[in-house]
Amino acid sequence: MTTAHDFTLKTIDGKDLPLKSFAGKAVLVVNTASECGYTPQYAGLQKLWQERRADGLVVLGVPSNDFGAQEPGSDEAIQQFCTTRFKVDFPMTAKQAVIGGKAHPFYRWIAEELGEGAAPRWNFHKYLIGRDGTLTGAFPSSVAPQSKELTAAIDETLAAQ
Question: What superfamily in CATH does domain 4-159 come from?
């Protein structure tokens, strides 16, 4: 069975980031953009990371220019924006396609697992990955990082061994 741990992304500074390096942790994967109405969610994601990483939660930002061309910058510009504007220190990947034929294999796997309707529909779509690499939840952009819906799913995922 394929799990999230079978995929590798690139970090925002160009290094390999095998998702299996997060085995034993819950991972909230979020496709992000710097020029979106949901961009202020970076603050909530950073807060979630600060509050829950000791419990085993990783927040992983995946910049994407797939929706409204709202992430036009280079990886360096994205990293500068995130660290300066929102003090982001959670892991970020290099910019990725998350929908369509050019989507990163990780996102194609999500669509295969959950159905095409589960593919991101906009920036700041969230996927929760369990400690074992299985998908445990999908949340649209409108679900804020501190929402009861998301935090309850994180609690449940972290509680599962």
Answer: Glutaredoxin (3.40.30.10)
